[in-house]
Amino acid sequence: MLQKRLILRRWQSLVEPWENVDWLLFILPVGLTLFGGIVIRSTELNYGWTDWWQHWLFGGIGFTLSLAIARCRYHTLLQLQWLIYTLTNVSLIAVIFIGTSALGAQRWITIGGFNIQPSEFAKVGAILTLAALLQERTAATIPAVIKALAIISVPWVLVFVQPDLGTSLVFGAIALGMLYWGNANPGWLLLMISPIVSALLFSICVPEWSQWSPDLAQALLRSLPWLLWVLAMGAIGFFTLPWRLLAGGVALLINVICGELGHILWGLLKDYQKDRLILFLNPEKDPLGGGYHLIQSRIAIGAGQFWGRGLFQGTQTQLNFIPEQHTDFIFSAIGEELGFVGCVLVMFVFWMICLRLVAIAQNAPDNFGSLLTIGVLSMLLFQVVVNIGMTIGLAPVTGIPLPWVSYGRSAILTNFIAIGIVQAVANNRRQRRYY
């Protein structure tokens, strides 16, 4: 009997540190990592590369880190928030001076023969900093929102100038998601992104001024979406901000100015820069240049049909028609070789991960844990939507990887660290028992 009690206590001492973790939230990312290694192997089958086993190696390291983080008290991060924020910005500044350039950008620091991408880890740093700020003072007031935006703008600018448009967009998604969860007025969030939307609508809908004189009615009809957007933003400013008349007028004026300013700035862009932003709408315009990735990706996904051509059997994939397929365009390999069924299953797994994150956020013991979880959810969801949208021609090519599936050592470590933090939140939902 005594021996059985000793065995039971020993077993409890082993299990107790992870007693309340969400094991499904561990199993799903690990499954995606194993699956990602297989798909990466398929893209490299005829070229002798070894990225697939490195993907598994760093996935194993990341999973070990997430297990270690899961048993820690996440409240310790509150005491380290400014240290983490400082280290985040210092690492991004270091990239400017000692960074390694590749693919037209300077985003990596080489340490011991390995390229480390600080902007990936900066996403977790931004989540921790925003969660600490918003748990102390919610985003229900305009000064609190401005403070949060000012804090996250520093790493955002440092990432943007590398240049890394994709990761800088992830920072924006993290900020919007966490501000919304932190009780910010949804109208304020809409006003924050309204200048960008106004500039895009103006460039797409509003004709040149020389076209207004011949047919004023037709020009007004074409400009209607932009005009409605500007009026809607004025109304939102009127109903959600103090000094209603002034706020509504300023919101309307800013959108009008940004529309025309966006049109002017658009004219200053070079042709290849314009193509990068809008070529996804018509990649056939430059089939051998900027549109090549998108055309070949759509061909590959379409060729997979319902069941796919079979693992390691995709012609587009095996003949290397799609550049960077093991990283940004990994979803096209899934579509070609595993078909519609494989694509749906991958998206279902991501949906399950998001569902578990929402459940943990709702049941977190405090606002800090809830905000941490929502920040991770915003980061992952945005990356999944943009990456898949990019490969099927519904979004511009931004260089955002598919979490746990695309090859990227810094990215996979970052994603597992983020999951470890969320598991720490889940693991502290109830008071532990001590024997």
Give a written overview of the molecule.
- With 435 residues, this protein is mainly α.
- The chain has a domain at 23-139 and 159-165 and 281-427.
- It contains 17 helices and three strands.
- It has helices spanning 2-15, 23-43, 51-70, 76-79, 81-98, 118-136, 142-160, 165-181, 186-205, 216-240, 244-268, 271-278, 292-304, 315-318, 330-362, 367-391, 409-427; strands at residues 100-102, 105-111, 114-116.
- Strands 1-2-3 form a three-stranded antiparallel β-sheet, with helices on one face.
- Strand 1 (100-102) and strand 2 (105-111) form a beta hairpin.
- Helix 6 (118-136) runs antiparallel to helix 7 (142-160).
- It is globular.
- The protein starts with a helix and ends in an 8-residue tail after the last helix.
- The model is unreliable at 11-15 and 431-435 (pLDDT under 50).
Task: Please outline what is shown here.
Helices cover 70% and strands 3% of the residues. It has 435 residues and is mainly alpha-helical. The protein is globular and about 65 Å long.
Summarize the SSE layout with pairings.
Layout: H1 2-15, H2 23-43, H3 51-70, H4 76-79, H5 81-98, E1 100-102, E2 105-111, E3 114-116, H6 118-136, H7 142-160, H8 165-181, H9 186-205, H10 216-240, H11 244-268, H12 271-278, H13 292-304, H14 315-318, H15 330-362, H16 367-391, H17 409-427
Antiparallel strand pairs: 1-2, 2-3
Helix pairs in contact: 2-3, 2-15, 2-17, 3-17, 5-6, 5-7, 6-7, 6-8, 6-16, 6-17, 7-8, 8-16, 9-10, 9-11, 10-11, 13-15, 15-16, 16-17
